[in-house]
Amino acid sequence: MNEIVTLAHGAGGSQTARLIDRVFKKHFNNPQFTADDAALLDLSGKMAFTTDGFIVSPPFFPGGNIGKLSVCGTVNDLACMGAQPLYLSCAFVIEEGLPMAKLEEAAASMEETARQAGVRIVAGDTKVAGKGQVDQLFITTTGIGQVREGLRLSGAFAQPGDAVIISGDIGRHGCAILLARDDYGIKADVTSDCAPLWANVRALTDQVKDLHVIRDATRGGVGTVLYEIAAQSHVGIHLQASAVPVQDQVRGVCGMLGLDPLYLANEGRLVIIAPAARAEQIVEILRTCPNSENAALIGHVTDQLPGRVTVQTQIGTQTILPKPAGELLPRIC
What we know:
30% of the residues lie in helices and 23% in strands. It is α+β, with helices and mostly antiparallel strands. It folds into 2 domains: 7-147, CATH 3.30.1330.10; 163-320, Phosphoribosyl-aminoimidazole Synthetase, Chain A, domain 2.
C-alpha cells in the first residue's frame, strides 16, 4: 500500500512523532540534531546568518528536487559572504496526500547535499496543510556559518576596473523547471545546475583574499544580480556577450520562447567581482572544482553609466541590457 501524508501527521501526536523518526531523524541524525525545542550550538567568531523559503513548482525536476534546492540555496547564501556553513534548521509545510515516498526522497536529497556541503541539519518543524493549500511541499531553511578571516564581501564593494567572472554556464535551472512543467511541448535534455558551492568558495578563498563581491545568481539570473551590484556600488558593468557560457540546449529553448539566458534562474552559479589582475587565477581555480569547470571571465566594472549594465553583442555593437521589470519568466517559486 502506498502511504501518504495525512493531516494527523501534522497534529503533534503519535503520528507526528513517527513521521519525524521515520523520515527526518533517519536522514538528519547528527550530534546536534535535537528533539528539544531548540538546538544547542557552539559558535565563535564572526557569523553569517540567513534564511530562505522554497516553493518551486514542480518540486521534483531533472537534476534535483525541492529538498536539494533548500540546502543548496541557504548554503550558497552563506558561502557568498565567505562563511563556512555550519548548521541548518528546516521547516516543512506538507500538503495532505503527498506520497510518503516523495517526502523521503526530498529528505534523502537534503541529507546527501548537506553531507557534500559539510553542514549539519540540527532543528526543524513540520506542518501538514489541507489538500490544495500548498503545492505538495514547501521548505524553509535557516543557516549559520562562520566567516573566514580576511574576507570582506558585499555587493557595495565593486570598483571600476574590476573583472566580472561567472562560475559556469547560465540559465539551466530556470530552463529545466520550465521544461518540467511541459507547458510548451518542448523536449530538450536540460538538467538543473543545482549544487552546493561552499567547496568552490573555500578553494578560491584559500588562495585569493582580495575579492570584492561573490553573489549566487538565483531567481533573477545573472542580469538581475549585476543590476543589483551596479546599483549598490554606483558603478557600471560591461559584459561581453560572446564570453557568457550558455549550454546549446538552453540557448535553443530561449530562442524559441524569446527568453534571455541572463534572466533565467541558476542554483549553482557564482558571480564574482575582483581586481582584474586576479581574474585569470580565479578562473583557473574555479575550473579545478566540481560545478565550475567552465568558469569564464565575462566582463568588467566601469565608471561609465553608473547603475547600468551594458553588453557588447555577438555582432560587435554595444547596447544597454534591459532592466528586469515585472514578473520574470519562467517563475520558479
